[in-house]
Amino acid sequence: MKRNRLGKSKLATVIAVAVASVALLSAGMAHAAADDVASLYGPQPPANASYLRVLNASSQAARVALAGSEAPQTLAPGAVTRFSVLTQGTAARVTVDGKALADAAGSAKAATRAGDAVTVALRHDATGWHATQIVGRYERVDGLKATLRAFNFAPGCSAKIGVDGNGPTVFAQVAAGAQDTRAINPVNAKLVGQCGAAASAALPLPALAAGDSYSLFVTGDAAKPVLSGARDALAWPPAAN
């Protein structure tokens, strides 16, 4: 009887050790899985964030600083910043060559809802810098396809964007000051922006994969449209000071 009791005690101990080992293994596997997800998707901005970026639609470089996570930088003609992440309560501001632009700052106030994304286009004339804005949403249309966004900053132009050489139409009509979005299968193509009979130079699309997001910008004017583009990218996580 004594040996049976000892045997049962030893068996209980073995079972307890086994259960503890399985629990530790499961916890380790869960932690490893979480690390894999984090390495795949990277750190994500807060769910209530809004977004702000600047496009230099002028013919001269500009020193640009914007509120949020993106660092100040010199923006070449035709270049665009990454999306600066604005956490809740952060005032949206755009400064060009050391001067805050009232029209840009006023337009950026529209980015009040979570997920709103403001693109501010800069122009320069004899009186200085000016800005116009288009407000959209920062979201992907289809994770299995590439997302294309079209922004029309050309005044007086109802823009059409299609494949060069009388190819298929990608965006049939984007009104001045408006944005459109669609999902496409990743393809190699050259696109052309049109305002009526006036057409831009052809813009080669980069190699896009499923899940990628790319923006097209129609600038210039109705008589001479310009088509440019950039990958959509977040300035996140913020750079360490």
UniProtKB/TrEMBL annotation:
- Hey, what's the signal peptide range on this chain? 1-32
Q: Which organism is it from?
A: Paraburkholderia nemoris
Q: In which pathway does it act?
A: Glycan biosynthesis; alginate biosynthesis
Task: Write out the entry's keywords from A to Z.
Answer: Alginate biosynthesis, Periplasm, Signal
Give the main location. periplasm
For this entry, the protein name equals Alginate biosynthesis protein AlgF
Subcellular location(s): the record lists: Periplasm
Q: Which Pfam family, any one, appears in the UniProt record?
A: AlgF
Reading the lineage from the top rank, the first entry is Bacteria
Keyword Transcription regulation present in the record's keywords: the answer is no
Which family is this sequence assigned to?
Answer: Belongs to the AlgF family.
